[in-house]
Amino acid sequence: MAPRRPLICGNWKMHRTVGQALELATAVRNALGGLSREVEVAIAPPFTALYAVARRLQGSPLRLAAQDCFWEPEGAFTGEVSAEMLRDVGCTYVILGHSERRQHFGELDAAVGLKARAALRAGLCPIICIGETLAERDAGETYGRLKSQLEGALAGFSPDMVAGLVVAYEPVWAIGTGRVATPQQAQEAHAFVRQHLHQHFGEVAQSVRIQYGGSVKPDNAAGLLRQPDIDGALVGGASLQAESFLDIIRACRPPDREAT
Ligand code: 13P
Asked: For 12-113, where are the E strands, in sequence order?
């Protein structure tokens, strides 16, 4: 089986106007150079900036991601944006089930599953976010939580569908807190996720990329990204500055390539 190509995605959350987004996207695009041969890189600006940024990225290997979508292709759903619309505007990826959506907007696993199906139908690659809270970790419920989130979101999925998605393990206690999971904690959770996928969907689990997210910074990225089951990162705060985002991308290269 081909090695998994790491995916580093910057989740800009609710930050950046169109002008600011163009500036940041351009800086990342211009500095990417040969880095994108070994690492796939994506940025997820807010909806309002997607079209302008997509045009700016034409011809560049830098990929575009959205931060959410709705599960219907079109209709009377005020305020929603469909996966087809995101594909039309130039997105490759869509982040789904982020813990901030679960926490602030009551998003449930079943909705994440519907959105992921819609994304796949539209030709997008869903990035499905899962992760436990601090209370769940302290109570020893981390794996139970990950299992129920995966089962809820991926109910009825075929191995082919699973082959088309990315999972992001984002422990809620590490998001925006500066408290990163240790490489060992993250690796254990990622290995659990891969094993769970293997149990339910078979061999395809070996090719599914599992990203880590939660306070990834240039100084902790390499330790995380060298773990065998960590296939990239979903980066929040540190993706809002081109230099720190690029340093994280550089940390993704195998050690023998770091000098180049
Ligand atoms: P931070 O990197 O700011 O902790 O955010 C992580 C995240 O939520 C990415 O989706």
From this structure: 40-44, 63-66, 93-96
CA 237 to centroid of ligand 1, rounded, Å: 6
Q: Is the CB of 42 under 6 A from ligand 1?
A: no
The whole-model pTM stands at 0.96
Domains and CATH numbers, the chain: 7-255 (3.20.20.70)
Burial of 126 (0-12, 13-18, 19+ CB in 10 A): buried
Catalytic residue among 84, 107, 132, 170: 170
Model pLDDT for residues 154-189, shown as the tens digit of each residue: 999 999 999 999 999 999 999 999 899 999 999 999
Please give the distance, rounded to the nearest whole angstrom, from the Cα atom of residue 215 to the centre of ligand 1.
6
pLDDT tens per residue, range 92-106: 999 999 999 999 999
